[in-house]
Design goal:
Main location: nucleus
Largest sheet: 7 strands, mixed
GO molecular function, one term: structural constituent of chromatin
Number of helices: 10
Shape: elongated
CATH class of the largest domain: Alpha Beta
GO cellular component, one term: nucleus
CATH topology of the largest domain: Leucine Aminopeptidase, subunit E, domain 1
InterPro entries: H2A/H2B/H3, Histone-fold, Histone_H2A, Histone_H2A_C, Histone_H2A_CS, Macro_dom, Macro_dom-like
CATH architecture of the largest domain: 3-Layer(aba) Sandwich
Distance between the termini: 67 Å
Helix content: 25-40%
Pfam families: Histone, Histone_H2A_C, Macro
Structural class: alpha/beta
Length: 365
């Protein structure tokens, strides 16, 4: 035994990556930085920060690519899934716009207007559209001298209610207005947008509001009570007439009626599945598809949805929210044409707001 400490424990040599808590090699990044920027002074923290950013971006792309592989029922990530992950995320698409992924294939770039559903469902050829545009509008008649025109600013603003009056201007192009907070927004691949909004769903200005209900179209739920309070007896009578024709409504089926006393023109009632059902996710998917199909049938441009079928458990709530968002994004990809341009998730409970905000942030479609 030596007199200088004996068998002293050897110190394990740690790398710069280990000291920084990273997986990516900090020393190698530092070496590359010195090669490419040899005429600059490189701070000791620069390669650490560079490696951390690279590691974060890689993890983000791998997560989205894994979701793409899962959606395509594949157990292994291929370059095609990485391409889909980057293309469907706005920030990554802007960052890696000029990057070519080997063996990733290509993505079709279809202008949204080519898929737009025209009123009446009739398709027009480019020649027909051109001839329609060339038609001269009718010349307005001159007003008489004794009746001067009123200024546009003096025109009365449309009132709420009265068969769901919402004004001639589309609700898609309007602001949310007072009492609403925009928390998250996502633009889909074909131009449609989804957003999470906090506020009273009965007061939001959209073409249609979705009311989760039961087979008898009861207005006892949170959304039903809000619409009942705003719409009054006229709306209750409208729902009763609808119930006579449509009830009992099967689970996940939807029916539509006109709105009264609130900005929305229509109300889409859906027999919402409960989280306790064994096939809850399949029922939620079917309910969302029926809502979107009914909105397209009425040529609606914007709808407001509450949380449909969300359960008490956080894990189950997250799965239902994932199913809802994925069903919406898949619907716009598979349908030939859609009039819908904006989907607003309007809710008040913080649990639902947090779930939708979190899942929308990592949406891959």
């Amino acid at each position: 035994m030596s007199g200088r400490g004996g068998k002293a424990a050897k110190r394990m040599r740690s790398t710069r990556s280990q000291r920084a808590g990273l997986i990516f090699p900090v020393s190698r990044v530092h070496r590359y930085l010195r090669k490419t920027t040899h005429h600059y002074r490189i701070a000791s923290g620069a390669p650490v920060y560079q490696a951390a950013v690279m590691e974060y971006l890689t993890a983000e792309i791998l997560e989205l690519a894994g979701n793409a592989a899962r959606d395509n029922k594949r157990s292994r990530i291929i370059p095609r899934h990485i391409l889909l992950a980057i293309a469907n995320d706005d920030e990554l698409h802007k960052l890696l716009k000029g990057v070519t992924i080997a063996s990733g294939g290509v993505l079709p770039k279809i202008h949204p207007e080519l898929l737009k559903k025209r009123k009446g469902g009739k398709l027009y050829t480019p020649e027909e559209l051109k001839s329609k545009k060339q038609k001269k509008p009718a010349t307005p008649k001159k007003s008489e001298k004794g009746t001067p025109k009123k200024a546009e600013k003096d025109a009365p603003t449309p009132k709420k209610g009265g068969k769901g009056k919402a004004g001639k201007k589309d609700a898609v192009n309007k602001d949310l207005g007072p009492g609403f907070t925009l928390l998250s927004e996502k633009t889909l691949f074909l131009g449609q947008s989804m957003c999470v909004v906090q506020g009273n769903i009965a007061e939001i200005d959209v073409d249609a509001v979705v009311n989760p209900t039961n087979a008898k179209l009861n207005l006892a739920g949170e959304v039903g009570n809000a619409l009942k309070k705003a719409g009054g007896e006229a709306f209750e009578e409208e729902v009763k007439n609808l119930a006579k024709d449509k009830s009992p409504l099967d689970v996940a089926d939807a029916a539509i009626c006109q709105g009264h006393g609130f900005p929305a023109k229509f109300v889409i009632h859906v027999n919402s599945p409960t989280a306790s059902q064994k096939d809850a996710l399949e029922k939620v998917e079917a309910a969302v598809k029926n809502i979107l199909a009914l909105a397209d049938e009425k040529n609606l441009k914007s709808i407001a949805l509450p949380s449909i079928g969300s359960g008490a458990k956080d894990e189950l709530r997250a799965q239902i929210v994932q199913t809802t968002l994925k069903t919406i994004s898949d619907y716009f990809v598979t349908v030939m044409a859609s009039s819908l341009r904006q989907i607003k998730f309007v809710m008040t409970k913080m649990e639902d707001i947090g779930a939708y905000t979190m899942e929308m942030a990592k949406l891959d479609a």
